[in-house]
Model the fold of this input.
Amino acid sequence: MNALELPVIRDPRVEHADIAAWLQSLGGPVWLILEGEDTRRCRVVTTLLHGNEPSGTLALHRWLMSGPRPRTRLAVLLANVHGALSHPLFTHRHTVDGRDLNRCFRAPFEGPSGALARAIAHDLAALVPELVVDLHNTSGNGPAFAVATRRHPVIEALAGRFCERLVVTDLRLGSLMELPHEMPALADCPVFTLECGGALQPEAREVAEGLFRLLSDCLDPAALSSIPYLEVLVHPLRVELRPGASVVYAREPRPGVDLTLWARIDEHNRGVTQPDARLGWLGERGVACLTARDGLGRERVDELLEARDGRLHARRPLRLFMATTNSEIARSDCLFYAVSAVSEGSLR
Done:
């Protein structure tokens, strides 16, 4: 293993039962490295790329308190420690003067967030991992799911242990899971995101804790058997506001607003959204206030959504995910992702 750019704590021991005190003691972005039984192999878990997504950190803290000894070397990154510690705890996606770290993993790596992303990418290559799992919470409440940029047996075997859905995307946003396409050193490494569920859902921490236990106990993730049903959905579209468009969340339409989304639209993160379901209300611009471009840059919003008597509806049965009720995230990131309810493939 080559030298790492970020600080390293080897074989960490938790001395603070209070999560905030523990994070303060870390001082900032840091690698926690547990040597394990087989030091020739390394697995990586990254978490806290977003400071308001705590499940991975809470699970890690609890797991470390048990004094684990993993089967292989395990390197765990706590990335946006400063964002997580911004008051109130675990409510800020990033610091006030920062950028969304999970949009910075590609050139030109501008500003402090870009520099941190570049250091993380360098360290991942230096660790020579056989697997990278990036832990997140969903922006709204909903079930756990996995996201990857390609299909891979290790990804599918692990994802099938913790969720029922794997989304394979060709969108390129500058996220950590895209690094195998950017860095030859990681080209063959299975990298995927595990969205554990909403930040306030107890089940989300259980998913993250399960991942740490599995990576600690299992020597070969590719050999996992008895994988439950895993639905694989490919090429989701990212539904965003057009520049200058406005959005609010309410139970009735708001005048003078381009889009009023249903106050509990995150309920659509489960199951299939049928065309008769009302997603919200549209202003004078109609669906023109929205955009959904595919991986080739083609506009596809009219294939997904339509206006009916001033209301927003799905044009066909869709699976929605990452639907948020946070207007700040809706404006700065996206409203939700959508894909046809007909899956492209599945595993049993």
About this structure: The chain is about 25% helix and 25% strand. The chain has two domains: 8-234, 237-347. The longest strand covers residues 38-47. The mean pLDDT is 92.
